[in-house]
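Wait, mind explaining this?

_____
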Amino acid sequence: MKTLLRVLLSLPLIVWLGSEIFFPIVAQITFTTLASDTHTAGTVVGHLLRILHGMGLISGIVMLAVLALAPAWGIYKPRAVLAPMVLVIFMITGTIYSQFVIIPAMERDRVAAGGAIDTNDPGNALTANFNKLHDRSVKVEGAITLLGLGVVTLLAWAETTRL
């Protein structure tokens, strides 16, 4: 039973963190392949980001549930799961912020710009705001990745302090 619960904790973390690490590669390949149509590339990457966020939210909820139950089932000491739980909550918060605040704001700018943000002058206020939001999105995803690496580290440490 303990092995199954460790798998239920590890698998969502692997999926989420692996997706976060692989996503920039997919985005770069998409924009390289569709270099002549950055609007389509952005649309594809936007859809993929929404999928990544959905996977992250489900993974985070599963991880929180297993971490909350782990001490009761004798997998980890209660104090050993607190820090990973806090980091997972921050990861979920960043994902929610990106999905429900940043992406809709970027979409509003894109629509207000006439549908294709890359055709605007970089000095245009809509383009400037879109770029600012994009930079924020990149930083949030980077923070989620670093937090995920922190969770991996803390769980490895928790293995050494098991009951």
In short: The chain has a mean pLDDT of 90. DSSP finds four helices and no strands in the chain.
